[in-house]
Design a protein that fits this description.
Elements lengths: L14 H12 L2 H13 L3 H29 L3 H12 L7 H32 L8 H12 L2 H21 L4 H25 L4 H9 L3 H5 E5 L5 E5 L2 H13 L6 H7 L7 H29 L10 H12 L3 H35 L3 H22 L15 H28 L2 H8 L5 H25 L4
Antiparallel strand pairs: 1-2
Helix pairs in contact: 1-8, 1-12, 1-13, 1-15, 2-11, 2-13, 3-4, 3-9, 3-11, 3-12, 3-13, 3-17, 3-19, 4-5, 5-7, 5-15, 5-16, 5-17, 6-14, 7-15, 7-16, 8-13, 8-15, 9-13, 11-17, 11-19, 12-15, 13-14, 14-15, 15-16, 17-19
The protein binds tryptophan (TRP).
Length: 471
């Protein structure tokens, strides 16, 4: 038995606060901005089903594993992995997991902050009444106009990055902890209001159909008509990889964010129970967002596959048309910014905790250093939607933003998650994991062990290698 560690960065004040902070990290742009647009791009129902299966069979067991490693190590992911490697006398290469996470978090934050900046700009736009009575075309033109001005997009990105640095500098357990307590439930209620509005639209059932009726052929077979006029269809694993990657992204898994939050978790709290609460809240928010957005898409004859602008081109139409829309619209984008804020801080917390531990840096300096680096890289994403959007600036048909998103969500997070599962399932001793999970060798532990040792790693490996063309 190793001695129990404690974190030098302090602890969450209660089990409930841990769950709130983790929900704050999980619920963000991933649920409200990304989930609807990738669902639209990937044909709807069948994609959503694969995503839900990934959440249940991969997300849940790996979240338990990641929290478990964090609470056992009680340090930044880099040092946690180092200590656990020593405890288990494992190969030192496992420590790379911590490093990979720090880099992934930094890459994600760079574009996350830009999109959060869009949401921030839209708070003011909504408040100014710009959406009142506007048509779908006007709303789309407003969004295009907004994106085409790099300096203003850059300014919003800068403001959001400063907000993130301020909270991380003060310690994640400070101010935001309290804000999240009532802002998250408020966001949830507002999404219900939006779904209520969507129900009043003629296309509500069409929207639900799109979201929940799986049509596997449409999603997984791409058909082309050849020169000879023959239709040729072939299977594509790509939507599965996007669904898998998004399961990691939306739950904040695979890069140490949940691990570092787990390292501040009180010793007596149940990891499994916390995980179920976090996953349930995160999934509910994503599905509600989809239920609000797709009816608006179909009742206005818009394109479901519109891409990253989808929520900015749909929800304002609803706010422009509904009673009290100016108020609800402002509030909605404000709450979205808060949701993004409480997620963004978890993206640099692993790096900041590490700089404090190993380099004796002050939290403030560490937060500023990481924030400024991510801000600089973020300029690439700012320009991906205007000056550098042309084909001559693309690689494999992808802009800088697309590349960063693909590399992080579809490659680095699944790989990180795979190694977290393997470490918790195969390297860590059963006595250590049982002890940390506060479980006996009963059904619960056996199920988790089966999932984390065999099922999740196999599924991740199959989807991953299939999509990159190896199997
Ligand atoms: N889960 C957040 C969202 O859905 C984003 C996020 C925060 C994240 N921390 C993370 C994604 C760590 C991956 C890894 O908006």
């Amino acid at each position: 038995m190793t001695e129990k560690r404690s974190s030098i960065h302090g602890q969450w004040s209660s089990r409930f606060i841990f769950i709130l902070a983790a929900v704050g990290s999980a619920v963000g742009l991933g649920n409200i901005w990304k989930f609807p647009y990738i669902t639209g791009e990937n044909g709807g129902g069948a994609f959503v089903l694969v995503y839900l299966v990934c959440i249940a069979l991969i997300g849940v067991p790996i979240m338990i594993a990641e929290i478990l490693l964090g609470r056992r190590g009680r340090q930044s992911p880099i040092n946690t992995m180092r200590s656990l490697v020593q405890d288990e006398q494992a190969h030192p290469a496992w420590s790379l997991l911590g490093w990979g996470g720090v880099i992934t978090g930094f890459l994600i934050l760079s574009y996350y902050s830009v999109i959060a900046g869009w949401a921030l700009a839209y708070v003011f736009r909504a408040a100014s009444g710009a959406f009142n009575g506007a048509t779908a075309e006007t709303i789309a033109a407003q969004f295009d106009g907004f994106l085409s001005a790099p300096l203003s997009v850059l300014a919003w990105h800068s403001i959001f990055m400063v907000m993130t640095m301020v909270v991380v500098a003060r310690g994640v357990r400070g101010g935001l902890e309290k804000a999240v307590t009532f802002l998250m439930p408020a966001l949830f209620v507002l999404l219900l209001v939006l779904v209520g509005y969507a129900m009043s639209l003629g296309a509500f059932s069409e929207g639900l159909d799109f979201l929940f009726s799986p049509n596997f052929e449409k999603v997984f077979y791409h058909c082309e008509v050849t020169a000879a006029g023959v239709e040729q269809c072939r299977f594509t694993g790509e939507p599965m990889l996007v669904a898998l990657g998004h399961a990691f992204f939306t739950l904040s898994l695979g890069m140490g964010a949940i691990m570092v939050y787990g390292s501040y978790m009180p010793a007596n709290a149940s990891i499994a129970r916390a995980t179920f609460a976090i996953v349930a809240a995160d999934t509910a928010v994503a599905l509600l967002a989809g239920m609000a957005i797709f009816p608006i898409v179909f009742s206005n004859g818009l394109e479901a596959a519109a891409g990253p602008g989808l929520i900015f081109q749909t929800l304002p139409i609803a706010f422009g048309a509904m009673p009290g829309g100016q108020f609800f619209g402002t509030l909605f984008f404000l709450l979205l910014v808060f949701a993004a804020w409480s997620s963004a801080i978890s993206l640099i917390e692993p790096a900041v905790a590490w700089l404090v531990e190993n380099h004796g840096m002050k939290r403030v300096s560490a937060a500023v250093l990481m924030g400024v680096l991510a801000w600089i890289l973020g300029i690439g994403t700012v320009l991906s939607f205007n000056l550098l959007s042309g084909e001559e600036f693309q690689l494999f048909g992808k802009t800088i933003f697309d590349l960063l998103d693909y590399l992080t969500a579809n490659i680095l997070l699944p790989l990180g998650g795979l190694f977290i599962a393997l470490f918790a399932g195969w390297i860590m001793s059963r006595s250590a994991s049982m002890d940390e999970l506060r479980m006996r060798d009963g059904m619960g532990y056996k199920t988790w062990s089966l999932l984390v040792r065999y099922i999740s790693p196999l599924l991740v490996a199959i989807v991953f290698f299939n999509a990159i063309g190896i199997i």
